[in-house]
Amino acid sequence: MSKKAKENKMQDTDTKDIKIENIDIEATAEAEQSENMEEELPAEEMDETAKLTAEVDDLKAQIEKQKDDYLRLMAEFDNYRRRTLREKADLIKTGGESCMKAILPVIDDIERAMQAVENSNDIESLKTGVELIYNKFRAYLEQNGVKEMETDGVEFDADKHEAIAQIPAPTPEQKGKIIDCTQKGYTLNDVVIRFPKVVVAQ
Q1: Parts of the chain with a pLDDT under 70
Q2: Is residue 178 within 8 Å of 156, Cβ to Cβ?
Q3: Which end of the chain, N or C, is less packed with Cβ atoms under 10 Å?
Q4: Count of beta carbons in the 10 Å neighbourhood of residue 191
Q5: Interatomic CA distance for residues 182 and 185, integer angstroms
Q6: pLDDT tens-place string over residues 94-145
Q7: Dist CA 75 CA 186 (whole Å)
Q8: Quick check: 192 and 185 in contact, CB under 8 A?
């Protein structure tokens, strides 16, 4: 190899070494600059970060509390629903108890009247006894909101009466009115529970 070639080769090697050294120096400088930037992070940004972190933690705590409150509310509602269903079932089973108890004295009176019919020939006293039982039972029904519907001479109303027959009106004034009632109607607390069967004048 010639002397000149050797010199050129040495120059190339030196150039490469210089380039490598420059790259190492630049990389070191960039790393130091990055570290310095991290170290020199403004206090305001650090405070803002801490504030946001605290807000996130607070929101998480609120969500957990609301979730717990929701689960408790659902459990209470489920217990209330079950208790209400049980109370309704008990009411259906025993709701008529007071009604039945109040009827029992009337049944006792009817049984006594039946015994009196077998052992007595006094028709008037038997009639009086039956009327007393009837009045007692009607009074009981009225105390519980059951009332007999008035039909005699009343204007026919398809919403309240059931017409089973129509006859020519004896007088013009009676046209469209009830002439006769073949079965009485009753209301419970002003609600019709049995429609009266009536004859209407036309």
Answers
A1: 1-44, 95
A2: yes
A3: N
A4: 8
A5: 10
A6: 767 778 888 898 899 889 888 888 887 888 888 888 899 999 999 989 988 8
A7: 45
A8: yes
